[in-house]
Design brief:
The structure is a single chain. The protein is mostly beta strands. It has 2 domains: 203 residues, no CATH class; 126 residues, Immunoglobulin-like (Sandwich), CATH 2.60.40. 7% of the residues lie in helices and 43% in strands. The strands form 7 sheets. Strands 1-2-16-6-10-9 form a 6-stranded mixed β-sheet. Strand 7 and strand 8 form a beta hairpin. The longest helix has 19 residues.
Length: 341
């Protein structure tokens, strides 16, 4: 799928997480989302965050090492970048003193995504981490992974010590921290477990944001869960990179996405019709596994019902579900999208 992403630098977490500070954090996220709304872009967010101003750091290391942390995915997500912590001054040199190889492994040590964060200040710095982009990769709900970075002995970039500093690490709700891992003398799949969250302060990744506002209800299909519709890329007509997805749907079944002007919740098939009015049906697609996906091309849409800048449309997925019986089909929830030039 074609993707366009933007990352936000407005994601600071305060120590102790008082109610006032949590409110401020959520307010900054909302402000960031509002600031990019006119661009039609999704908002990427870090998997882990902590107050870097409140920690002390380790400034030397005896050997090269791999640091990693294991996490379980709570909801299928997409990653767009992997990064390492950069304290800034004082450092061996402005930015990172050494390049850092970064990777996401599955638990069988298969590489899911990898990159190198370059030396210095070439990589963008977001909330204390410098990130290297990766081609968007999907991490599956219920599966566990390791995100890891190589930390060379010389020059040694500072590693924050959140444990000794008593600074909590806050994790994105779509992931659950399991434990940290290390391996000495090189960059390899780690085998030494560490119970604390220390590694999450050293290596991080960005989770792709989603577009639009969901509405209406979906009922469980034969997969056992309701299908949720989402969008990625952007709602920019010039970019023409909007991608729709619905998951989980019955594996291998055909379906369509459709859109219209009006939100509703009307019994239909084994679920609800969430969109009414003059409807436009997109091409039939077949689910790959439990994922139904479609790349929108504005040039191929019916000219009688154009999507124009400033317009708002509601989208929904319809799919066959013979295993469920009844009407033999079901639907996702609805998704409202506002379009920009």
């Amino acid at each position: 799928m074609r993707r366009t992403r933007v990352a936000s630098a407005l994601c600071q977490h305060e120590p102790r997480h008082s109610r006032a500070r949590r409110a401020l954090h959520h307010g900054l996220i909302a402000l960031s989302a509002a600031l990019i709304a006119d661009t039609g872009l999704a908002l990427d967010t870090p998997a882990a965050a902590f107050d870097a101003s409140a920690v002390f750091v380790h400034t030397t290391g005896a050997v090269d090492r791999t640091i990693a942390w294991e996490f379980t995915v709570n909801q299928t997500l997409e990653i767009t970048a992997i990064g390492v912590f950069d304290r800034g001054a004082p450092s061996p040199e402005p930015g990172l003193g050494a390049p850092h190889e970064v990777v996401i492994w599955d638990l069988a040590a298969n590489v899911v995504a990898s990159a190198t964060v370059p030396v210095g200040t070439a990589a963008p710095k977001i909330d204390g981490y410098r990130y290297a982009s990766v081609a968007p990769v999907t991490l599956v709900a219920g599966q566990s992974y390791l995100v890891a970075a190589f930390w060379p002995q010389t020059p040694f970039d500072h590693i924050p010590d959140v444990v000794s500093s008593g600074v909590p690490v806050v994790f994105h709700p779509d992931v659950t921290f399991v434990q940290s891992w290390v391996e000495l003398f090189g960059f390899t799949f780690p085998t030494i477990p560490v119970a604390s969250e220390f590694a999450a302060a050293g290596v991080n990744f960005l989770i792709a944001g989603e577009l639009g506002t969901n509405h209406c209800l979906a009922t469980p299909n034969s997969s056992g869960q309701p299908a949720a519709i989402s969008a990625s890329g952007s709602t920019s007509l010039a970019a023409n990179d909007l991608a729709l997805a619905a998951q989980p749907v019955p594996a291998g079944q055909n379906g369509i996405f459709f859109y219209g002007p009006t939100q509703a919740q009307l019994p239909f098939g084994n679920g609800f019709q969430c969109v009414t009015g003059q409807l436009v049906r997109l091409d039939v697609v077949t689910a790959v596994g439990d994922l139904l996906a479609f790349d929108v091309d504005y040039a191929t849409l019916p000219p009688q019902v154009p999507i124009t800048a400033g317009s708002t449309w509601n989208f929904q997925a319809w799919f066959r579900d013979p295993a469920a019986g009844g009407a033999n089909f079901n639907l996702s929830d609805g998704l409202e999208l506002a379009f920009v030039p």
